[in-house]
Design brief:
It contains 10 helices and 8 strands. It has helices spanning 5-13, 26-44, 64-73, 89-98, 135-147, 173-180, 195-200, 205-208, 215-223, 229-242, and strands spanning 53-58, 79-86, 105-108, 121-127, 149-162, 171-172, 186-192, 246-253.
């Protein structure tokens, strides 16, 4: 991994919930609702539709998004098993402490996922961890995920992407597509223009919340976990035109 596992564990230890602010960022709530819709679309395309879903969630972190997705999926579907895995012991420990009554099975797992060999899932999820891996690691990961699929399996994977060369935060979109192609057929892609907006603006909110003039407004924004629909439109309209080469792209694959 490009980012050391020790560093990721240290980040979890240093924060109360999640190093990436998933529990307070307004645009994270927008992002999570977007992922809910993408997952629902993937489930709608399952053929044949399984009576009970077996779900694998790779790179689950502290489980905040996993819990939200499990709740939304269970409306209209029966879940036989929801397995959420992460390479970080601190992340899984945080997930278990935050969700002690959860029906999700949280597990620490090696990066190559070989512990799951022989298992099959109807739905495989993975959100925003791909830039942490090198080209070779992503290719190996996709081949391993392919082994967990049956003919009807759907995958929902997302990544920060850019048009141009890859870096530590964004994967070159053409390169990522080329890495996926030997293993999967792409059924649908949709883009979300939040990543750079978060980096350029929202991270500064924490430093503004104690200022006299704007502190009250900022604290109110940070407290909102489900932003109104108008906020989604405003954030997208601001982020897209200003940083058109950077985006979050979500893939539905089979």
């Amino acid at each position: 991994m490009k980012r050391s596992l020790q560093r990721i564990n240290e980040q979890y230890i240093a924060t109360e919930t999640d190093p990436w602010g998933i529990d307070w960022r307004g645009t994270m709530a927008i992002r999570n609702r977007f992922y809910e819709r993408m997952v629902a679309e993937a489930i709608g395309g399952l053929e044949p539709r399984p009576a009970e879903l077996r779900i694998l969630d790779v790179g689950c972190g502290s489980g905040l998004l996993s819990e939200q997705l499990r709740s939304s999926i269970s409306e209209g579907n029966t879940i036989d098993r929801y397995l959420a895995v992460d390479v970080s012991e601190s992340a899984i420990a945080r997930a278990r402490s935050l969700h002690p009554q959860s029906v999700i099975e949280y597990r620490v797992i090696d990066e190559d996922l070989t512990e799951l060999s022989g298992e099959e899932f109807d739905l495989i999820l993975g959100f925003e961890f791909l830039p942490y891996h090198s080209h070779e690691e992503r290719c190996a990961l996709f081949h391993q995920l392919k082994r967990f699929c049956h003919d009807g399996t759907r995958l929902v994977l997302s990544s920060n992407v850019r048009f141009g060369e890859s870096d530590d935060v964004y994967v070159a979109v053409d390169q990522l597509a080329a890495e996926m192609t030997p293993c999967f057929d792409c059924l649908l892609t949709r883009d979300l223009f939040l990543s750079t907006y978060i980096d350029k603006f929202e991270c500064h909110l924490l430093t503004w919340q104690h200022q006299r003039l704007v502190g009250g407004l900022v604290r109110w924004l940070l407290a909102r976990r489900t932003p109104p629909a108008c906020a989604c439109r405003v954030v997208q309209s601001l982020a897209g035109p200003r940083w058109p080469r950077h985006r979050n792209r979500t893939f539905i694959l089979k």
